From TrEMBL, chain A:
Cell compartment(s), UniProt: Endomembrane system
GO-annotated biological processes: intracellular protein transport; vesicle-mediated transport
Pfam families assigned to the protein according to its UniProt record, in alphabetical order: Adaptin_N
InterPro entries: Adaptor_Complx_Large_Subunit, ARM-like, ARM-type_fold, Clathrin/coatomer_adapt-like_N
Cleavable signal peptide: none
Stretches assigned to the Clathrin/coatomer adaptor adaptin-like N-terminal domain: 50-439
Keywords: Membrane, Protein transport, Transport
Coiled coil: none
Keyword Lipid biosynthesis appears in the UniProt entry: no
GO cellular component terms, A-Z: endomembrane system; membrane coat
Keyword Protein transport among UniProt keywords: yes
Stated name of the protein: Clathrin/coatomer adaptor adaptin-like N-terminal domain-containing protein
From TrEMBL, chain B:
Membrane topology: Peripheral membrane protein
Protein's UniProt name: AP complex mu/sigma subunit domain-containing protein
The UniProt record lists the keyword Transport: yes
Family label: Belongs to the adaptor complexes small subunit family.
Protein keywords: Cytoplasmic vesicle, Golgi apparatus, Membrane, Protein transport, Transport
PANTHER family per the UniProt record, alphabetical: ADAPTOR COMPLEXES SMALL SUBUNIT FAMILY (PTHR11753)
Keyword DNA repair found: no
Annotated GO biological process: Golgi to vacuole transport; intracellular protein transport
Organism name: Capitella teleta (Polychaete worm)
Domain of life: Eukaryota
InterPro entries: AP_complex_ssu, AP_mu_sigma_su, APS3, Clathrin_sm-chain_CS, Longin-like_dom_sf
Function (record text): Part of the AP-3 complex, an adaptor-related complex which is not clathrin-associated. The complex is associated with the Golgi region as well as more peripheral structures. It facilitates the budding of vesicles from the Golgi membrane and may be directly involved in trafficking to lysosomes. In concert with the BLOC-1 complex, AP-3 is required to target cargos into vesicles assembled at cell bodies for delivery into neurites and nerve terminals.
GO CC, alphabetical: AP-3 adaptor complex; cytoplasmic vesicle membrane; Golgi apparatus
Domain (AP complex mu/sigma subunit): residue spans on this chain: 1-147
Length: 445, 192
């Protein structure tokens, strides 16, 4: 009886679509779900929670098995299961329902199906095989929503062995008229690249085409692939540098649509990606680095530091300057910028100041000299994250003249530290220093 | 790369968890617990970055988080991500949730877990940042809502379904105008 009543009540708001109970509908969640959550919130022990969830799970299992479950009811059951799953309870009985939901029904039902599959299991699960034909079919759909969800599902549910089956369809979507589809298809290829790098090699021409896409967001996605490609073989991609410089110039001159602006900074995330790629391409390559010097200086000087995201760009630019073949003028400029981070009252900026100084010290230890007193302050800072980064910097600053003092500092912190992981880390650092400077005498207690 | 996005409340109860890399179920639970322990013991006036989680990926990995009233939003990322970039991405995520649910609260994240994940799906894909423009993310999730209304409407109230379909055309047209409106980058194509 109560079950019938409950069902009637839960369908009531839907019968009154837009009518009497909009607030109830907006809040979402059926009465039973709300009640379950309330009880979960009130449990006193893990044992009580377990018995409550087990009861809920057996109820949901029954409901799923009923022949006449409406699509919206099934959707809600699946969402209730997602919640139980997040609390670490076994919901494997529902996997097959999630798969079925993805395989058939309306776009919305399929979307719920794909979502729950991706949350419940991953590429290693045997059920993924059941989905491959569906993904394949949806990739070729004429409905943009279906293609997009199939592409998202591909990044979450496909294993290395399945790549060959899906690659042609994904590749085909690179020439889709909609920008969002092209962009997601490129992201899919990047996922494939992470799983099996060799897959990408024959596709270089199409990826280059994506990089030159008329829509900047597709180019942005393609940059991820080039980041990984240039990790292994930076000299093979130096031909990209003039193009990247040109994009940066256009960003600085605000040629991109205002959609890419964030707090008046033009395309900050894209700029950061390009700077990261430049850092890889210019490392140990003087001729490649030389081309970048003017634009890096321009980025540094023209980026508005008024909002944090502007500082994200400036920070990345400093990292790039430290990573490529050194240019004294730029490095001097960079050291000046570091003061702005180090002296900031905002601790996020201070943290990044210590981090960038660590990169600059790797180029030349003397860049730390003018910041010495700030560094010592940071060493005693109440924030553990800043302390730990400063110890890293100290380790990098070690030279024959100061190595004994630095080791002593590291050991002091070793004795104070409570975290085992951090202690081990410190010991590794001290060990490294003593080995590198073994000719010097140490006097560590 | 973003390895995981975790949202939990001040008591450590998970509200959203999304992993972009494979971890066993047990491991996922341990990561959630460890992350909560690490983040919750930090004061609100320290920096938003934290290293030292042992489970998710060792020294190459970092937690970047924000604490809003009762909820922690934590992104677990590797060293290739920009700290300040991710921090603002969390802000974009939260603002989008807030727009979508009109004053988002903890319960919304549970009742509408599907919608939250659709928003996340537009924000990042395969662990990489996909979209950072809130308007764009909202307009994509709106498509989803329209579809939902349309499908619920057909069975319950046909008149409403029709109006939903009419509504659908207007923003669609607006988007079509917006898409080719990017003259600048086309120029560089030749220069690559």
């Amino acid at each position: 009886m109560s079950d019938i009543l409950e069902r009637t009540l839960s369908t009531l708001p839907r019968l009154l679509v837009g009518g009497l109970a909009p607030a109830e509908k907006e809040r979402g969640g059926s009465r039973a779900f709300r009640q379950f959550l309330r009880s979960i919130g009130n449990v006193k022990s893990k044992h009580d929670e377990e018995s409550l969830v087990k009861k809920e799970l057996s109820l949901l299992k029954q409901k799923l098995a009923m022949p006449k479950v409406s699509s919206s009811q099934r959707q809600e059951i699946l969402m209730r299961l997602v919640y139980c799953h997040m609390l670490a309870y076994d919901v494997s009985f529902a996997y097959i329902h999630a798969v079925k939901q993805a395989q058939q029904g309306t776009v919305l039902e399929k979307k719920v199906g794909y979502l729950t599959c991706a949350l419940f299991f991953d590429a290693s699960h045997e059920f993924v095989v059941l989905l491959i034909n569906t993904i394949q079919k949806d990739l070729q759909s004429s409905n943009v929503l279906e293609v997009c969800m199939a592409l998202t599902a591909t990044t979450q549910l496909v294993s290395t062995e399945m790549i060959p089956a899906l690659l042609p369809s994904v590749q085909d979507r690179l020439s889709h008229p909609k920008e969002i589809v092209r962009r997601k298809a490129v992201m899919c290829l990047h996922r494939f690249q992470q799983m099996a790098p060799e897959v990408i090699d024959p596709l270089l021409p199409v990826i280059h085409k994506a990089l030159c896409d008329k829509h900047p967001s597709v180019m942005w996605a393609a940059l991820y692939i080039y980041q990984d490609l240039s990790k292994g073989n930076p000299s093979g991609f130096t031909s990209l540098i003039p193009g990247l410089i040109s994009v940066l110039t256009q960003i600085l001159n605000r040629k991109l649509s205002a959609d890419y602006e964030f707090h008046t900074v033009p395309a900050p995330w894209l700029t950061v990606q390009i700077l990261k790629l430049m850092a890889k391409l210019g490392a140990n390559n003087p001729s490649a680095s030389e081309k970048m010097y003017p634009i890096l200086k321009e980025v540094l000087q023209r980026t508005e530091p008024s909002h944090k995201i502007g500082l994200a760009v400036i920070y990345e630019c400093l990292e790039t300057i430290a990573a490529i073949s050194p240019h004294n003028g730029l490095l001097e400029l960079a050291t000046k910028c570091v003061s702005r981070f180090l002296s900031a009252t905002n601790l996020n900026l201070k943290y990044l100041g210590v981090k960038i100084l660590t990169s600059l010290v790797a180029v030349n230890p003397h860049y730390a000299v003018e910041h010495q007193s700030t560094v010592l302050d940071c060493l005693e800072h109440p924030d553990a994250s800043i302390r730990s980064k400063t110890l890293e910097l100290l380790h990098r600053m070690a030279q024959p003249g100061n190595v004994a003092v630095i080791c002593q500092k590291l050991m002091d912190h070793f004795q104070q530290a409570g975290d085992v992981h951090f202690k081990t880390h410190l010991l590794h650092r001290v060990n490294d220093l003593t080995q590198r400077h073994e000719t010097h005498s140490f006097n560590i207690v | 790369m973003i390895r995981a996005i975790l949202v939990f409340n001040n008591h450590g109860k998970p509200r959203i968890s999304k992993f972009y890399q494979y971890y066993t179920e047990d491991m996922q639970q341990q990561i959630i617990r460890e992350t909560f322990q690490l983040v919750s013991k930090r004061d609100d006036n320290v920096c938003n970055f934290l290293e030292g989680g042992t489970l998710i990926g060792g020294s190459d990995f970092k937690l970047i988080y924000r604490h809003y009233a009762t909820l922690y939003f934590v992104f677990c990322v590797d060293s290739s991500e920009s700290e300040l970039g991710i921090l603002d991405l969390i802000q974009v995520f939260v603002e989008t949730l807030d727009k979508c649910f009109e004053n988002v609260c903890e319960l919304d994240l549970i009742f509408h877990v599907d919608k939250v994940h659709y928003i996340l799906g537009e924000l990042c894909m395969g662990g990489m940042v996909l979209e950072t423009n809130m308007t764009e993310i909202l307009s994509r999730t709106e498509e989803q809502n329209r579809l939902e209304k349309q499908e619920a409407g057909i069975s319950a109230a046909p008149a409403r379904a029709i109006s939903a379909m009419k509504e659908m055309n207007i923003p669609q047209r607006m988007k079509d105008i917006k898409l080719p409106d990017l003259p600048s980058i086309g120029n560089i194509a030749g220069k690559f």
